[in-house]
Structure formats: structure tokens, C-alpha cells
Amino acid sequence: MKFAIRVIKNIFHPLKVAQNANIKHGQYVLARTDKGEEVFKVFLVNNEIQKIWEKHQPEPLSVVRIMTPEDMKTYEEQKKLEVEAFYKCRDLALKRNLVMKFAQARYTFDRKKITFYYTAPERVDFRELLKDLTKEFPRVRIDLRHIGVRDETSILQGQGICGQDYCCCRFLKKFEQVNTKLAKDQGIPMTPGKITGACGRLLCCLNYEYNNYIDAAKTLPPVGSGVMTPEGVGKVFMVNFLKKTVNVKLEDGKTKEYNKEEIEMIDGEVDIEINIDNNLNYQEEEVVDIKTLNDDKNSTTGNI
């Protein structure tokens, strides 16, 4: 049997386990990482994952020992200390007027190192803050680590509008570029609450079915095109990709939905005024800079 541990974010690493070690699924172990010795929950790896790892196996991590009841008590105390350290660091940054939003504080098990994860719109000169932290946490190595807003969400975890855990907390290991064109091409209402995640950036899942929408669009007339319908000439003002239908405004002002088999595109301009679906625009009460929804240099850093 093979076991793995989930390091911060959604990165699983196989465990180097001694043959005489009696490790079980769901146990907690102390493992050695690049940050030091940390506590992790053990997961049993299924056969499918084992086959994938035979070709592309992540770096194995060594088990120091299985956590004892005494270790678990120490670990629970450590979690409380991390919360205290988080607020201390945040308050010190505020006193220095530093524009930093802290996401999490993590101690190594021996408490010789603490890592503070933060987001910031621009580069921060935290040298004075580091001096303050050194005084506040003597004999502890301080690591201030800048991360992106997408990284922050993957660390904090939660559930999306679909009702499931965030993709970045379950299976998404690499963030792909996302832009508003993906939402527009799929006919999704351009309302921040519908197209953005907890990170404030566009939903990663806009990428998942994009190619299917593009393939469907090739078989349907685009918005603004003239078509011949059973009721006469009209102009397309909305495309329903999933239903493979279009909404058409006719010469008499009426609108109707047609299957693609019921219509035929015609050449030339059709003198019918249409209002493109208001769902493609922001609601009036929402004042949002559309550019802020796109990925930028602060969306993800890979610095976790």
C-alpha cells in the first residue's frame, strides 16, 4: 500500500514509509518538508493514482514518526499559537501602515520557524516589520511569504457557488489564465456575483467547457446576423449554446426562439434594431472595473 500527505494548497506527496511502520489511512504523522517538520493527515493512495505516479511521481517526503497522543496535544496548542501569531503580525503591519492582507500563519512542529502568508497589491518593503516580528518571536525564524489572491483562497478553502469545495482545494494544481472573454463567449451574465469566485477573480471553471461552447457557436448564427425564419426575416439577438437555439427579433417587433434547423442565414444587412441581452452588461447598481476581474501578476504567485 502507498500513502500520501496533502501539503498546503492541493499538492499531494507520497510518503517514504518504513516497512515495519504501522501507518493507517486518516492518521496524523510528522513529516519532513522544505520548511521543516510539519504535521499532516495520511491518505491511502488508490491504484489509479499509483499508476499515474509511476510516470510522474511527486517528490516523496519522509515520515519522522506517527503522532502520539502527547504530540497531538502539542499540535492543538500549536494551532492556537498560530492564531495568536497571525493577529500579532497583522497588528504590527497596521502600525507600520503596510498594505498587507494576511491569510495564514504556520509553525513548524518544533516551533523554530513560522511562515506568514500574505497578499498585497504591490511590492511591500517589510524590513521594519521583520525587525518587529523578530522581537515579538525571539529564537524563531520568520518567513514572510507573498502569495496571490487565488493562492490565498486555495489555502483558506471553502465552497463555491456550485456547492462543492473550491477546485483549487480539490484537484486544481495549476491556475490557467482566465479573462472576461471566456464568460462573454459562453453567454454568461456579466455580473460579478455570477462569474467571480471568493478570490475576486474570474471563476477557474470558465475554462472547463469553453471549447464546447466554441464548437457549439460554429453551428449557430452569431448575434446580429440576419436569418430567414418560418415567420419571415429576423435578426438574432441571443444565442443559447446549451439548447442549440437562437432568439430572433422579427420585422413586426415580436421575438421568438428557434432551433438551428428552423432558420437559415441570409446575406446582407437586416434593418431591425436589437438590444443585446442585458445580461451581458453589469447591473446598474454595481460599479465594477471589469479589468480587475481578469488575472494579473497578483492573482497567483506559486510561492506557497
Question: Separation of termini?
Answer: 29 Å
Biggest beta sheet attributes: 5 strands, mixed, barrel
Overall shape: it is elongated
* CATH class value of the domain at 72-146: Alpha Beta
* Strand order within the widest beta sheet: 1-2-5-3-4
Task: Give a topology summary.
Blueprint: E1 3-7, E2 11-16, E3 28-33, E4 36-44, H1 47-55, E5 61-66, H2 69-95, E6 101-107, E7 113-119, H3 127-136, E8 141-146, H4 149-156, H5 167-170, H6 180-185, H7 192-195, H8 210-217, E9 226-229, E10 232-240, E11 245-250, E12 255-259, E13 264-265
Parallel strand pairs: 2-5, 7-8
Antiparallel strand pairs: 1-2, 1-4, 3-4, 3-5, 6-7, 9-10, 9-13, 10-11, 11-12
Describe this structure as you would to a colleague:
Helices cover 25% and strands 26% of the residues. With 304 residues, the chain is α+β, with helices and mostly antiparallel strands. Helix 2 crosses helix 3. The longest helix has 27 residues, at 69-95. The chain is elongated, with a radius of gyration of 27 Å.
Characteristic terms for this protein:
8 helices; 304 residues; SH3 type barrels; 26% strand; five-stranded antiparallel beta sheet; elongated
In short:
This protein has 304 residues and is α+β, with helices and mostly antiparallel strands.
